[in-house]
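[09:14] KT: can someone run the structure on this one? pasting the chain below
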Amino acid sequence: METTLRPLGRSGINVSSLGLGCMGMSPVYGAVDDHASLQVMHRYLDLGGNFFDTAERYGPFDNELLIGKFLREVARDRVVIATKFGFRINPVTRIASGLDSSPDNIKRACEASLTRLGVEAIDLLYQHRVDPNYPIEEIVGAMSELVAAGKVRAIGLSEASAATLRRAATVHPIAALQSEYSLWTRDPEMNGTLQACQELSIAFVAYSPLGRGFLGAKIVDAGDLPEGDWRRTTPRFEQHALEQNQTLIDALRKFASKKECTPAQLALAWVLHRAGCIPIPGTKRVAYLEENMAAPKVRLSQEDFHRLTEAFPLGVAVGARYSPSGMATLDSAAELADREKEAG
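[09:31] RB: done, C-alpha cells below
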C-alpha cells in the first residue's frame, strides 16, 4: 500500500489514507472470529495502515476489548484509535436503550473506553449520534474538558448535519466528521456536510465506503447474507432492492475491468479522489483487506471520476440505508429532508 497520510483536521494527527472500520469484527454481519480479526489488524498495520475505528456501542464493549488486546501486542505510537460514545447502555445486559450524550455519560463512556482499550488517551473521540436532548455546544464543551485533561487528543462528530457541525466548531476545533459515504450513498453531497467540512478544515471520514459490502460485487440476493446479519433488517438489502440495485454493480464491474482493478478497489478509489476524505472500509478477512489496501494504487483521472459519478447519480440506490427508527437518529438525514422539502 502507498502510505500516504491525511490530516485529521487541524488536530496535528495524521492517519493513513485508508482506515480500518472494526465494527464488523463484532456480531453485526454474522459470526465473528477474534483470532481472524486480530490477524486482519496486524496485516493492516504491516501494510502501512494506522487508523482504527471502533465504538463503545459495537458489541457493546467487545470491539474495544478486542482492539485493546491488539494494542497490547503493538507499539502504541504506530496506531491512531478512534472510538465513540453516545448511547445509554446497560452494563449488565449490554442492551442499548437510546441516545445519551449527557455530560455525565460522556465522562463515564470515556473512562470506560480508556480502560477497555488499555490506553492513557483516546486519539479521536466522536459523538456517535447527535442527541437532541442536549445542545451541541454543551456536548462539545464536555468533550473539550476531556481534551484539556489529557484523556482525549481530538474530538469529532458522527452523522451530524452541516448546521450542527458549524455550531460545534465555535466551541472547540472539530477534527473529523464521520458519515456514511460511497458511490451509492452520496447524502453528504446533498445535505451540505462535505462542503462544511471543507470550509472548516475538518476531515471527512467515510464509513461503509463499500456500501456495507454491496459495492464489492459479491452480494447478489438476500440469501448471500449469513444468518444473524444486521443487513437483513435494512430496506436497501431487501430482495427487491438488491435486484434493482444490481444494474449499478454491472456498471461498476465494466468500469473496473477497464481500469484493471476490482469493483471494491474502484469504489474506494472514487472516495479517495475527493480531497479531505478518509474511507474506513471494514473486513474480517485478510484477503479482502489486502484487496482494499491496494485501492490507492488505482489512479482516476478527472474524466474517470466524473464518468463514474454520473453512473451513480445522487439518490440512485433503491431502499433506505437504515430502518425508519435508525434513520430517525441521523441528524444529517433530518437536514437533508428539510432541504428536499424546501426544494420541492
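[09:33] KT: thanks! The first strand starts at residue 5 and ends at 7.
[09:34] RB: yep, looked fine to me
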